[in-house]
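Retro notes, item 3 of 5
We never archived the inputs for the beta-D-glucopyranose complex last cycle. Fixing that now. Sequence and ligand:
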Amino acid sequence: MKKKVVSLMLVAAMAATLFAGCGNKTEETQTPDAAPSTEAQTADADATADAAADAVGGDLADKKVGVCIYQFSDNFMTLFRGELENYLVSQGFSKDNITIVDGANDQATQTGQIDNFIAEGVDVLIINPVNSSSAETITDKVVEAGIPLVYINREPSADEEARWEENGWNVTYVGCDARQSGTMQGEMIVDLGLETVDLNGDGKIQYIMVEGDPENVDAQYRTEFSVKALTDAGLDVDCLTDQVGNWQQDQAQQIVANALGQYGNDIEVVFCNNDAMALGALQAIESAGRTVGTDIYLVGVDALSEALENVLSGKMTGTVFNDHFSQSHSAADAAIKFLNGETNEYYIGCDYVKVTADNAQEILDMVK
Ligand code: BGC
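Structure as it came back at the time:
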């Protein structure tokens, strides 16, 4: 297990330097601010599906789809794969021809699953890679087999995406820009105002960061851009510790429990790269007798139902809706276009939505 522990002394010494998760990097933020309405997304999806179904003359029922998920136990990817399967079926695929496999967070296992799908002769592959850095090898074998490929959730490198375009391959990536979600997390803290968040009155925001898998660009960007939103707003920040919770609730609970033991009331904000880890953080916060919204602030990403309930009851400051409907529908639509002999853009994006107590009910109604 990779683990990053940053000591208080080190942070003090390096506060102003570049430091993974605890530094002030200065990249351009891309923060599209308008999220498409659900009605609009559904209407778009229906229109695309109708057009695709007409064009292939109902052939989708005979097409075999192989879906590789990096790990079934991941809460967010569970929502994603459920919606992906439902949507594929609603577009005319037969449930029997959709095979979804669990990579068990092991690239060798997933590579074997991809080899099996190729041997079986699936018509299209949708892949959530265990390691984004394995994309080049995966792409090569899938393209060689003449199978169109839609990557989801874990974005391959810019060089890898450029290769698809240069070669005109039937490969695309569907996902959201995690810089946007990180920025939204930071903005929710900024919106509370320094007076509210700076509980110890030292003019700085003391925070801890709980990161997802650092191999994953979503974790890297959320870590960087959540803090950047604070510094962009002119706030001084002080990173007490930045550790890897691998997207998992139990690991985050342990990290935050330890941090609360070490830094106590100095912790003003807990940033978690996803909601599963925010739920773990909340358990640790409550066990330590601290109260979110009163003497500590907590933000996550994904908008899991449980996190939304917590935002509504004030146990979490906010979260960011990671739209699994839009992403799974776009992935399926891209697959349909490939099957239909059409091309896709090489990057298909989607917008995150900031969630506070003001709109949490609306999002909860949508995801439940
Ligand atoms: C989600 C995480 C999830 C990860 C898996 C991220 O976009 O926010 O909850 O664990 O994807 O790759």
